[in-house]
Predict the 3D structure of the following.
Amino acid sequence: MMPASSADSSSAPFKYRFNDSTLLDEALTHKSYVNERKGSSQNHNERLEFLGDAVLSLIVSDYLATRYPRLSEGALSKLKAKLVSEPSLAAAARRLDLGVRLRLGRGEELSKGREKTSLLADGLEAVIAAVYLDGGLEAGRIFTLDALSEELGHIESLQTKPGDDDYKTRFQEWCQRQYELLPRYVTVRETGPDHQKLFRVEVLVGEQVVGCGQGHSKKEAEQAAAKLALEQSDR
């Protein structure tokens, strides 16, 4: 792992100087860019994204297992899931200003692709793979852990309360204790364009609506609904 030179402006934000700059070019090239340039020899980043997902999983798993030798497999899995989630990876990508460096097709540009959580997360995975191929596993490990440094900084609080923000599980357990019933979640509304959907979900116990919530994914909306239902159950 070497600090980027000032001349190497494309890789400087990533704190890594590439020996093979074509790997970085490929990592930053979205499929839409290649599709709009028929006959182009430029590769898009989907294959690197595939590899980067595996490299990321190995690096994060190794870090957590080494750092927290007393945690159970289940607790480690929860921490890993948070670290490698789309929102976590996209947040890291934004800190690296990865979005402004992506090569996108016109359609993706018009739909604000540079701001999309999924594209940013995929792009970071592709860059992780590029670093791994260019510099080896140790370079990939240093780059990845540095990119996720802010998320890793929250690990202690995640470790001490690994399930406190899983409102769906907590509400399900409460319903089973109180009523011997399972809650049911119903999506009642979807609004917004495809890249910025907003979902509204109601949670029911039997036929009674006991909470509602909204979010940019159904899972997020369900968690919000379960949280409200739990708060109301404590009154």
